[in-house]
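Study this one:
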Amino acid sequence: MNNSDIAVIIPAYNEQKNLPVLLKDIESHLPHAHIIIVDDSPVPTILKESSNVVLIARDSKQGRGSAVLCGLAEGLKHKEIHYFFEMDADLAHSPAEFHRFLEKRHDADMVIGSRYIVGSKILTWPKYRLIQSKIINLFLRYLLGLHIFDFTNGFRLYSRPAADFLVHTPMKEKGFIALSEIAYKIQKRGFKISEVPVSFKDREFGRSNANVRELLVSLFGVFRIRFCAFI
């Protein structure tokens, strides 16, 4: 199967152990896809050279949302790319589930891998983090008024028109809450959003970048998203 019309965007920060494992898994499912890693690590990531992998090393931690937009902008330079995956670098998301998103690619401009719909699974996640995540997503659903069950999972597929819209639209948020801002702006623009069930597992190597400070900053960001005029 030729999948050269697909790009996979991977925002990364201190994921030197996880990235080689993830790349091998991606290439086993989408062998011809373009892979774009946007790395904000203080120590540059070194990977084996590959013709389909682009590594963009930035000089500071500029936020997950910023990294995704940077990757989308790079992918849009290639006219043959029509679909753009976004996924975590920490092995929380499985490339084996790419097919679920691709089955919906003609029906929606953004397909979200949801942890909170029928058929989804959450593996090896501490109970307190599961409860925290569910509360945050309920809060986001109520405040933003979108019929989405998972605003905070960064496993997504965008159509080219949606990716182009995001790259050329001013964003107020740069961190994790940018996932919610992206969904909000996509919906308000009239693009269609769909969700598919996915499996999610906690990282095996390294430490989560979602600390308490970033979560608190993100919650304040929700009010900026909802009550400020963006477009």
Summary: The first strand starts at residue 6 and ends at 12. The beta strands are 6-12, 34-39, 53-57, 83-86, 110-114, 121-123, 156-159, 193-197, 199-201. Helices lie at 18-29, 64-75, 98-102, 127-144, 160-167, 178-189, 212-227. The chain has a mean pLDDT of 89.
